[in-house]
């Protein structure tokens, strides 16, 4: 009896004891907010990657690459049949072992409307160096009258050339195609009727034959006369980020001349969508085709500057021209002493881009030729150039 009574008392006591308190899993509100903000930031960073380096360096001194390294890769675009074929042809040409001719030649390609006013000067320049050069003349308006034996009979098939249109690029490609027929031509220089040499033949020959790159002008201009000329009709093969600008006056090695002549894919985009009056702006094909093409196909194989000097310091539609009174020894000396390439963007910032002119890794004067000279300057040039070594570096 006593035992049972004791059990009842114990059970009663247990009934009035408080039960176990439930454990709460509630976290501080600030942790939830922080995690949400970080998640939103990462999603936005993936969808809208930072466009400037300043934002990247807030998070890491190594810049945007740190962020993009651990983000999922953007799916690669599937190339069309035409792109695949083009890439294969360009790759094979660039990777073909370089075959040096016994006496390699420089092909001088003259783009002119008619007769060349400085033939006498070029005659003096070429004299005594037969077998080391070839001359090709594209006269787009009238048959030229020659005064030098080096130019006689050197005309190529020519068509009309209109400034700003693809016909300018067509003429350049036509000159290259004709010059490529000669396997000894190893370097190709495009010149106009207003161009003159700045050094003697030996200096220019050694400079070009012994170089390891092509001198194609190329820079990124975000302004209205650069990327402002881009058309989205060039997609998907050509994106705005690859669109480049540069002077048309080039000097290129044989492999590069071959891929320019072989190209149809990228050329067709500029033929159809880069011309005056398209989409409310004037796209000048000869200022954009080659810079964009080489930036996409072999950016490390070009110098990004031209060996032909043109003075745009007056900021006009046309470069500065030189009359007879302008041609002095000091002028030529000043031009031949320039060893830094300069480009200015066309946007409101007018950003000045400078980089040294490197020849096989060594800084040297940039220019071998210059334009734009009026025909009246011929006699002064002949007198100054009577001894070419006096102005050669």
Description of the structure:
The chain contains 13 helices and 13 strands. By secondary structure, the protein is α/β, with parallel strands linked by helices. It has a domain at 81-306: Spore Coat Polysaccharide Biosynthesis Protein SpsA, Chain A (Alpha-Beta Complex). The strands form five sheets. Strands 2-1-3-6 form a four-stranded mixed beta sheet. The protein has a three-stranded mixed beta sheet with strand order 4-13-8. It has a two-stranded parallel ribbon with strand order 5-7. Helix 5 runs antiparallel to helix 9. It is globular, with a radius of gyration of 33 Å.
What is the residue-averaged pLDDT? 85
Structural class: alpha/beta
Count of beta strands = 13
Strand content: 5-15%
| CATH classification, class level of the domain at 81-306 | Alpha Beta
Task: Give start-end ranges of low-pLDDT stretches.
Answer: 1-18, 51-68
Shape, principal axes of CA atoms: globular
SSE string: HHHHHEHEHEEHEEHHHEEHEEEEEH
Given the structure, what is the number of helices?
A: 13
| Gross CATH architecture of the domain at 81-306 | Alpha-Beta Complex
Largest sheet: 4 strands, mixed
Radius of gyration, Cα only, in angstroms?
A: 33 Å
Strand order of the largest sheet: 2-1-3-6
Provide the helix percentage: 25-40%
Fill in the CATH topology of the domain at 81-306. Answer: Spore Coat Polysaccharide Biosynthesis Protein SpsA, Chain A
Query: Which assembly state applies to the chains in this document?
Result: single chain
Task: State the distance separating the first and last CA atoms.
Answer: 127 Å
Subcellular location: Membrane
Pfam family, one: Branch
GO molecular function, one term: glycosyltransferase activity
Main location: membrane
